[in-house]
Amino acid sequence: MFSLYRKPCLMRLVPVFPFLALLAGCSAPRSILWDGRVAEAGSFEIQADQVASLPSASIGPYFDVLDKAKSDLSGLDRSDLRKLERALVAAQLDMPGSALDVAVRVGVGAGFELGGRYVAGSKGGDLRWQFLDGGSGEWTGGLGLGYMTQSFEVSGKAGTALGMDFKRQDLLVPLAFGVQYGSAKGFHTNLGCGVGVALTQVDYSFTPVSDVQVDGTVKRAEVIPETQERFASFGVHGMVQPGWGVFNLTLGASLWHTDYGTYKVPDMAPISLEGWTFLPSVGLALRF
Protein backbone atom coordinates (compact mmCIF):
# COMPACT_ATOMS: atom_id res chain seq x y z
CA MET A 1 0.00 0.00 0.00
CA PHE A 2 1.18 3.51 -0.84
CA SER A 3 0.05 6.34 1.40
CA LEU A 4 0.81 9.98 2.07
CA TYR A 5 0.89 11.38 5.57
CA ARG A 6 2.00 14.47 7.49
CA LYS A 7 0.98 17.93 6.39
CA PRO A 8 -0.03 18.69 3.73
CA CYS A 9 -1.84 15.35 3.26
CA LEU A 10 -2.81 14.78 -0.38
CA MET A 11 -5.66 12.51 0.71
CA ARG A 12 -7.49 15.61 1.92
CA LEU A 13 -6.96 17.36 -1.40
CA VAL A 14 -8.79 14.88 -3.63
CA PRO A 15 -12.33 16.20 -2.94
CA VAL A 16 -11.39 19.78 -3.85
CA PHE A 17 -8.94 19.06 -6.66
CA PRO A 18 -11.45 19.02 -9.55
CA PHE A 19 -12.27 22.66 -8.87
CA LEU A 20 -8.62 23.59 -8.35
CA ALA A 21 -7.72 22.07 -11.69
CA LEU A 22 -10.11 24.43 -13.43
CA LEU A 23 -8.81 27.45 -11.54
CA ALA A 24 -5.09 26.69 -11.84
CA GLY A 25 -4.78 25.32 -15.34
CA CYS A 26 -3.38 26.83 -18.51
CA SER A 27 -5.51 27.89 -21.45
CA ALA A 28 -3.64 26.91 -24.62
CA PRO A 29 -3.66 29.91 -27.04
CA ARG A 30 -4.77 28.08 -30.19
CA SER A 31 -8.04 29.76 -31.17
CA ILE A 32 -7.93 31.06 -34.78
CA LEU A 33 -10.54 33.58 -35.95
CA TRP A 34 -9.25 34.94 -39.23
CA ASP A 35 -10.31 35.24 -42.87
CA GLY A 36 -6.84 35.91 -44.29
CA ARG A 37 -7.36 39.67 -44.48
CA VAL A 38 -4.92 42.14 -42.84
CA ALA A 39 -5.32 45.81 -41.92
CA GLU A 40 -4.22 48.41 -44.43
CA ALA A 41 -1.15 50.49 -43.63
CA GLY A 42 -1.95 52.83 -40.73
CA SER A 43 -5.25 51.08 -39.92
CA PHE A 44 -5.73 48.91 -36.87
CA GLU A 45 -8.06 46.29 -35.42
CA ILE A 46 -9.12 45.52 -31.85
CA GLN A 47 -10.54 42.04 -31.32
CA ALA A 48 -11.93 40.48 -28.12
CA ASP A 49 -13.37 36.96 -28.06
CA GLN A 50 -14.68 34.70 -25.32
CA VAL A 51 -13.27 31.27 -26.14
CA ALA A 52 -14.44 28.02 -24.55
CA SER A 53 -12.00 25.11 -24.41
CA LEU A 54 -13.17 21.48 -24.42
CA PRO A 55 -10.05 19.25 -24.40
CA SER A 56 -10.62 15.51 -24.22
CA ALA A 57 -7.17 14.96 -22.67
CA SER A 58 -7.99 16.90 -19.48
CA ILE A 59 -11.77 16.45 -19.23
CA GLY A 60 -11.30 12.68 -18.80
CA PRO A 61 -8.81 12.96 -15.88
CA TYR A 62 -10.96 15.70 -14.36
CA PHE A 63 -13.98 13.39 -14.06
CA ASP A 64 -11.82 10.47 -12.88
CA VAL A 65 -10.86 12.56 -9.86
CA LEU A 66 -14.41 13.88 -9.45
CA ASP A 67 -15.77 10.32 -9.28
CA LYS A 68 -13.19 9.41 -6.65
CA ALA A 69 -14.12 12.48 -4.62
CA LYS A 70 -17.70 11.21 -4.34
CA SER A 71 -16.65 7.90 -2.75
CA ASP A 72 -15.68 7.15 0.86
CA LEU A 73 -12.00 8.15 1.16
CA SER A 74 -10.11 6.09 3.72
CA GLY A 75 -6.66 6.66 2.22
CA LEU A 76 -4.77 7.57 -0.92
CA ASP A 77 -3.33 4.55 -2.73
CA ARG A 78 -1.24 4.40 -5.91
CA SER A 79 -4.31 4.55 -8.14
CA ASP A 80 -5.62 7.68 -6.35
CA LEU A 81 -2.27 9.46 -6.59
CA ARG A 82 -1.96 8.48 -10.24
CA LYS A 83 -5.33 10.07 -11.02
CA LEU A 84 -4.43 13.19 -9.06
CA GLU A 85 -1.12 13.71 -10.85
CA ARG A 86 -2.59 12.95 -14.26
CA ALA A 87 -5.39 15.48 -13.75
CA LEU A 88 -2.93 18.13 -12.53
CA VAL A 89 -0.59 17.71 -15.51
CA ALA A 90 -3.49 17.64 -17.98
CA ALA A 91 -4.97 20.84 -16.53
CA GLN A 92 -1.68 22.69 -17.03
CA LEU A 93 -1.36 21.54 -20.64
CA ASP A 94 -4.93 22.21 -21.78
CA MET A 95 -7.44 23.49 -19.26
CA PRO A 96 -11.18 22.98 -19.81
CA GLY A 97 -13.10 26.19 -19.29
CA SER A 98 -13.39 29.63 -20.85
CA ALA A 99 -10.97 32.52 -21.40
CA LEU A 100 -10.92 36.01 -22.89
CA ASP A 101 -8.72 36.33 -26.00
CA VAL A 102 -7.75 39.97 -26.69
CA ALA A 103 -5.65 41.19 -29.63
CA VAL A 104 -4.65 44.56 -31.10
CA ARG A 105 -3.16 44.66 -34.61
CA VAL A 106 -1.95 47.43 -36.92
CA GLY A 107 -1.27 47.40 -40.65
CA VAL A 108 2.36 48.19 -41.58
CA GLY A 109 2.05 48.02 -45.38
CA ALA A 110 3.17 45.60 -48.09
CA GLY A 111 0.43 43.18 -47.01
CA PHE A 112 1.72 42.83 -43.42
CA GLU A 113 0.28 43.59 -40.00
CA LEU A 114 1.75 43.36 -36.49
CA GLY A 115 -0.20 42.51 -33.37
CA GLY A 116 -0.11 41.95 -29.62
CA ARG A 117 -2.22 39.30 -27.91
CA TYR A 118 -3.25 38.24 -24.39
CA VAL A 119 -5.06 34.98 -23.51
CA ALA A 120 -5.65 34.01 -19.85
CA GLY A 121 -2.12 34.70 -18.64
CA SER A 122 -0.40 33.96 -21.95
CA LYS A 123 1.00 37.00 -23.72
CA GLY A 124 2.79 37.57 -26.99
CA GLY A 125 2.23 38.80 -30.52
CA ASP A 126 1.96 37.85 -34.16
CA LEU A 127 2.89 38.82 -37.69
CA ARG A 128 0.41 38.28 -40.53
CA TRP A 129 0.90 38.45 -44.28
CA GLN A 130 -1.91 38.67 -46.83
CA PHE A 131 -0.71 36.99 -50.02
CA LEU A 132 -4.07 36.88 -51.83
CA ASP A 133 -5.96 40.17 -52.17
CA GLY A 134 -9.58 39.88 -53.26
CA GLY A 135 -12.34 42.47 -53.43
CA SER A 136 -15.97 42.05 -52.45
CA GLY A 137 -17.11 38.53 -53.30
CA GLU A 138 -13.53 37.42 -54.09
CA TRP A 139 -11.26 35.22 -51.98
CA THR A 140 -8.43 36.49 -49.81
CA GLY A 141 -5.62 34.45 -48.28
CA GLY A 142 -3.15 34.98 -45.47
CA LEU A 143 -0.36 33.29 -43.53
CA GLY A 144 0.59 34.13 -39.96
CA LEU A 145 3.21 33.47 -37.29
CA GLY A 146 2.38 33.99 -33.62
CA TYR A 147 4.35 33.56 -30.39
CA MET A 148 2.92 33.27 -26.86
CA THR A 149 4.58 32.61 -23.50
CA GLN A 150 3.37 31.88 -19.98
CA SER A 151 5.21 31.06 -16.75
CA PHE A 152 3.82 30.38 -13.26
CA GLU A 153 3.90 28.26 -10.14
CA VAL A 154 0.84 26.02 -10.08
CA SER A 155 -1.51 27.36 -7.39
CA GLY A 156 -4.10 25.56 -5.28
CA LYS A 157 -3.49 23.01 -2.53
CA ALA A 158 -2.72 20.14 -4.92
CA GLY A 159 -0.28 22.18 -7.01
CA THR A 160 1.42 23.51 -3.88
CA ALA A 161 1.72 20.07 -2.25
CA LEU A 162 3.35 18.65 -5.37
CA GLY A 163 5.43 21.81 -5.90
CA MET A 164 4.77 22.05 -9.63
CA ASP A 165 6.39 24.87 -11.64
CA PHE A 166 5.27 25.24 -15.21
CA LYS A 167 6.07 27.43 -18.19
CA ARG A 168 5.25 27.12 -21.86
CA GLN A 169 6.05 28.74 -25.17
CA ASP A 170 3.77 28.42 -28.20
CA LEU A 171 4.36 29.08 -31.89
CA LEU A 172 1.15 29.25 -33.93
CA VAL A 173 1.15 29.18 -37.75
CA PRO A 174 -2.34 29.81 -39.20
CA LEU A 175 -3.23 29.60 -42.88
CA ALA A 176 -6.56 31.30 -43.63
CA PHE A 177 -8.78 31.97 -46.62
CA GLY A 178 -11.89 34.12 -46.66
CA VAL A 179 -14.42 36.07 -48.66
CA GLN A 180 -16.39 39.23 -47.91
CA TYR A 181 -19.91 39.93 -49.15
CA GLY A 182 -21.25 43.46 -49.04
CA SER A 183 -19.62 46.85 -48.49
CA ALA A 184 -16.87 47.30 -45.90
CA LYS A 185 -18.43 50.66 -44.98
CA GLY A 186 -21.97 49.27 -44.78
CA PHE A 187 -23.48 45.89 -43.96
CA HIS A 188 -21.20 42.99 -44.79
CA THR A 189 -20.48 39.39 -43.91
CA ASN A 190 -17.00 37.87 -43.78
CA LEU A 191 -16.49 34.11 -44.04
CA GLY A 192 -13.18 32.49 -43.14
CA CYS A 193 -11.66 29.03 -42.89
CA GLY A 194 -8.30 27.32 -42.94
CA VAL A 195 -5.78 25.13 -41.14
CA GLY A 196 -3.13 25.67 -38.47
CA VAL A 197 -0.05 24.17 -36.87
CA ALA A 198 1.04 24.89 -33.29
CA LEU A 199 4.45 24.00 -31.81
CA THR A 200 4.75 24.03 -28.02
CA GLN A 201 7.68 23.79 -25.62
CA VAL A 202 6.94 23.02 -21.97
CA ASP A 203 9.40 23.33 -19.07
CA TYR A 204 8.15 21.86 -15.79
CA SER A 205 9.37 20.57 -12.43
CA PHE A 206 8.03 19.01 -9.21
CA THR A 207 9.40 19.82 -5.75
CA PRO A 208 6.91 18.11 -3.39
CA VAL A 209 6.52 19.28 0.20
CA SER A 210 4.86 15.99 1.34
CA ASP A 211 6.43 12.83 2.75
CA VAL A 212 5.44 9.43 1.39
CA GLN A 213 5.33 5.94 2.86
CA VAL A 214 6.07 3.07 0.50
CA ASP A 215 6.05 -0.50 1.91
CA GLY A 216 6.66 0.82 5.42
CA THR A 217 9.56 3.07 4.43
CA VAL A 218 9.19 6.81 4.95
CA LYS A 219 10.85 9.20 2.51
CA ARG A 220 10.39 12.60 0.97
CA ALA A 221 8.28 12.50 -2.21
CA GLU A 222 10.39 12.29 -5.36
CA VAL A 223 11.71 15.55 -6.81
CA ILE A 224 11.46 15.95 -10.58
CA PRO A 225 14.05 18.55 -11.71
CA GLU A 226 13.23 20.95 -14.53
CA THR A 227 12.37 18.86 -17.57
CA GLN A 228 11.52 19.89 -21.12
CA GLU A 229 8.92 18.46 -23.49
CA ARG A 230 7.97 19.56 -27.01
CA PHE A 231 4.85 18.68 -28.99
CA ALA A 232 2.86 19.71 -32.06
CA SER A 233 -0.85 20.34 -32.64
CA PHE A 234 -2.72 20.27 -35.95
CA GLY A 235 -6.05 21.96 -36.46
CA VAL A 236 -8.77 23.41 -38.66
CA HIS A 237 -10.76 26.58 -38.10
CA GLY A 238 -13.76 28.48 -39.43
CA MET A 239 -15.72 31.65 -38.71
CA VAL A 240 -18.58 33.87 -39.83
CA GLN A 241 -18.43 37.60 -39.15
CA PRO A 242 -21.46 39.78 -39.87
CA GLY A 243 -20.89 43.49 -39.40
CA TRP A 244 -21.75 47.09 -40.14
CA GLY A 245 -18.94 49.55 -40.76
CA VAL A 246 -16.23 49.19 -38.12
CA PHE A 247 -18.32 46.85 -35.91
CA ASN A 248 -18.07 43.09 -36.52
CA LEU A 249 -19.61 40.23 -34.57
CA THR A 250 -17.45 37.11 -34.71
CA LEU A 251 -18.71 33.53 -34.37
CA GLY A 252 -16.21 30.74 -34.94
CA ALA A 253 -14.54 27.56 -33.82
CA SER A 254 -11.25 25.67 -34.03
CA LEU A 255 -10.63 21.94 -33.71
CA TRP A 256 -7.18 20.61 -32.81
CA HIS A 257 -5.51 17.24 -32.36
CA THR A 258 -2.52 17.10 -30.02
CA ASP A 259 -0.08 14.44 -28.81
CA TYR A 260 1.15 16.21 -25.68
CA GLY A 261 4.07 13.84 -25.09
CA THR A 262 5.21 12.16 -21.86
CA TYR A 263 5.69 13.78 -18.45
CA LYS A 264 7.59 12.61 -15.38
CA VAL A 265 5.68 12.79 -12.07
CA PRO A 266 6.69 12.06 -8.45
CA ASP A 267 6.79 8.37 -7.43
CA MET A 268 4.77 7.24 -10.46
CA ALA A 269 5.41 6.06 -14.00
CA PRO A 270 5.52 8.85 -16.61
CA ILE A 271 2.17 10.16 -17.88
CA SER A 272 1.32 10.37 -21.59
CA LEU A 273 -1.54 12.43 -22.98
CA GLU A 274 -3.19 12.74 -26.40
CA GLY A 275 -6.54 14.09 -27.55
CA TRP A 276 -8.80 16.53 -29.38
CA THR A 277 -9.65 20.09 -28.32
CA PHE A 278 -12.75 21.97 -29.53
CA LEU A 279 -12.66 25.77 -29.18
CA PRO A 280 -15.98 27.54 -29.94
CA SER A 281 -15.93 31.32 -29.59
CA VAL A 282 -17.95 34.51 -29.82
CA GLY A 283 -16.60 38.05 -29.86
CA LEU A 284 -16.40 41.54 -31.31
CA ALA A 285 -13.89 43.08 -33.72
CA LEU A 286 -13.49 46.81 -34.37
CA ARG A 287 -11.63 47.91 -37.51
CA PHE A 288 -10.51 51.53 -37.87
Structure description:
The chain has four helices and 13 strands. The N terminus is likely disordered. The longest helix has 16 residues. Helix 1 packs parallel to helix 3, helix 1 crosses helix 4 and helix 2 packs antiparallel against helix 3. The protein has a single domain, classed as Lipocalin (Beta Barrel), CATH 2.40.128. The chain is an alpha+beta fold and 288 residues long. A hairpin with a 2-residue loop joins strand 9 and strand 10. A ten-stranded antiparallel β-barrel has the order 2-3-4-5-6-7-8-11-12-13. It is elongated, with a radius of gyration of 22 Å.
What does the secondary structure layout of this molecule look like, with pairings?
Layout: E1 2-5, H1 17-24, E2 44-55, H2 56-69, H3 78-93, E3 97-109, E4 112-119, E5 122-132, E6 139-153, H4 156-162, E7 164-182, E8 187-206, E9 211-214, E10 217-220, E11 224-244, E12 247-265, E13 268-287
Antiparallel strand pairs: 1-9, 2-3, 2-13, 3-4, 4-5, 5-6, 6-7, 7-8, 8-11, 9-10, 11-12, 12-13
Helix pairs in contact: 1-3, 1-4, 2-3
List keywords for this structure.
single chain, 288 residues, alpha+beta, Lipocalin, ten-stranded antiparallel beta barrel, three-stranded antiparallel β-sheet, 4 helices, elongated, disordered N terminus
